[in-house]
Amino acid sequence: MKQFISLCILMTLPVLAADSTSHLATAPLPKPAGKPVARVNGSVLTDRDLLREMMTIFPYARLHNGFPQAMEPQIRRGAMQMMIFEELVYQEALARKMSIAPSKMSRATADFQKQFPSDSAYRKFMREEFNDSQQLLRAKIQRSLLIEEMLKVEVTSKASVSLAEAKVYYSQHLDKFRTPESYSVQTISIIPPDNANPAQLKEARKRAEDALPQAKAAKNYEEFGLLAEKISEDNYRVMMGDHKRVDKSKLPPEIAQAVMSLKIGDVSNLIQLDQAYCIVRINGHAPAAVQKFDDVKEQLRPQLEKDKTEKLRFDLGKRLQAHAKVEEL
Fold this sequence. Notes:
three-stranded antiparallel β-sheet, disordered N terminus, Chitinase A, domain 3, alpha+beta
């Protein structure tokens, strides 16, 4: 049922969320007229079906009154592939004589209607999409449920990963679970202007020297952080100078060299980076290690199941398409 909702209801309900593509130029929403765009073993798929799939991939299109021009070809291509895949899955379900129980159909039909914010919105959808035909609606819902059942048989039921299987994967891929040596640090930076003249460089050096005893006097994370907020000139000042955990190999060589001689809670002397100056506080040090299985299993199993699901779907589509006649019109 969820799949059918994603294909149909997004056509009528307003998109409420904003997204990060609002600044991109958009191509106007197409006006589908039932024109054939693909034929799968003789079954015709139309521009209405294609637009529904495009809206599923990029639901913000209605909010922006179109698809981002730069993304539209990719969205269209993905929608076409998904539409053809679903039709092949549906046809395979029919070939296997799969069916949906009447009680499940009734529940799905009722649940579908509940997705609409009002009766008028539902009636509008029925008028525009199905010419007020309950029979056509039920056929669409049945199609969606058959696709769902077929995918459950061929994908979902086969995609589960047991704890034992996850442990085998872990043992065979230990490199994926290695963590590099890292330091948790806070910084205070004094940065002269671009193209600074000698006087400006001298003034920056003095500010750094004045900052150092204050930083050394900070007794804990909070005191150093408040000082960073007050006098630091890098972007981390708004986060109390906190860089969280940083891979040692990604630290500037001057800082990496300095932190190696410090203990947790220590504050470095002035570290010069080109024309800037940095003071570093060490809050933590983690040696290179391999994560324990017990620490990663809760994240590992879902990821393995996701990867397995994608492969099963790909293999299913490949098998179905091998003996199908698919034409894009």
